[in-house]
Amino acid sequence: MKKRSAMLAGMASALGVAIVAAPATAQQRVSEECRMQVRALCDMQDRRQRRACLREKSRELSAECRSELRSLSQRQQGTARAGTMTVPATQLLSFGKHQRQGVDYYAPSSPSAEKPPLILFVHGGGWAIGSRERTVHAKPAHFTANGYAFGSLGYRLLPEAPVETQAADVAAGIAYIRGQADRLGFDSDRIILMGHSAGAHLAALVATDPQYAGEDMAAIKGVVLLDGAGYDVAANMARATNRASQMYQAAFGDDPERQSALSPITHARAPDAPHWLILHVSWRADSRDQSQALGAALTQAGSDVSVEAVRGTDHGRMNRELGTQGDTSTALVDAFLARVFE
Length: 342
Description:
By secondary structure, the chain is an alpha/beta fold. The protein has helices at residues 2-20, 23-29, 32-41, 47-57, 63-76, 139-145, 163-179, 181-184, 198-206, 210-213, 233-237, 245-252, 256-261, 285-300, 315-320, 328-340, and strands at 91-94, 102-106, 118-122, 149-153, 191-196, 220-226, 275-281, 304-310. Strand 7, helix 14 (285-300) and strand 8 (304-310) form a beta-alpha-beta unit.
């Protein structure tokens, strides 16, 4: 009993910190879906009141959310975690007037005779929060050390910019950085598009629907999706247990035609990016089902697709720990990149 009380106190303390933090910082610590559950239960400004509420009502949170909170509590109590070395961006490339319309570019740490491929990352945040600067964590250091150029791409957010505009921003960023390839020194025709959560949805949409990237689609040689659940929007919104319904409602509305048009699975037919690695947290039913459905549709359309369930992680950790030593997702991504560019 004492052990459980201590665990709940740690969870409550962790959430007390995370929920009152700035949105981008909180998004890095626990998933948007979990934060929405916490707010629905204990929407108080006072930290002490929130912690007491969470201790009392923790059983009303989903098992997935409780797992995320336990992980956060352990990390804040000093549980050992793989290193997350960061490196500064080489330069910022602006492709629009808004401050979010930019790409933080990281050059490979060692020059080579052959121009390297570019890994272009699209951040998550429920289409409404997040930033290109605070979501890269160890990725630039890892991938640039392995001979790749790396970019973190920003886009305008809800409610200012609807999802269609966000996808257009991603495509505009691809077009702009390709135009700078000779100056920056990477191969403009070898791009991997990578996205996490809502960013995985946007990456998948741009890599399947040619209305966004147009001729630039041919340069996208591969796509890496990290625990997305918005590949078939209508199917996900129809789930009786979908606790993220409010977030999806804000992003996609009620129009079935619009929901279909913004679903990557609708466009999973040629032309699509040729190679796909779709990762999902093993115990997240929504991301599992959506990942498998998109993978099957892309495979049927002729793409090379691998769908992998990743154990021992959660929605936020998959993104935070990508690029760290011993991380399962990192090993899968590294193997995928080696195969695409062999």
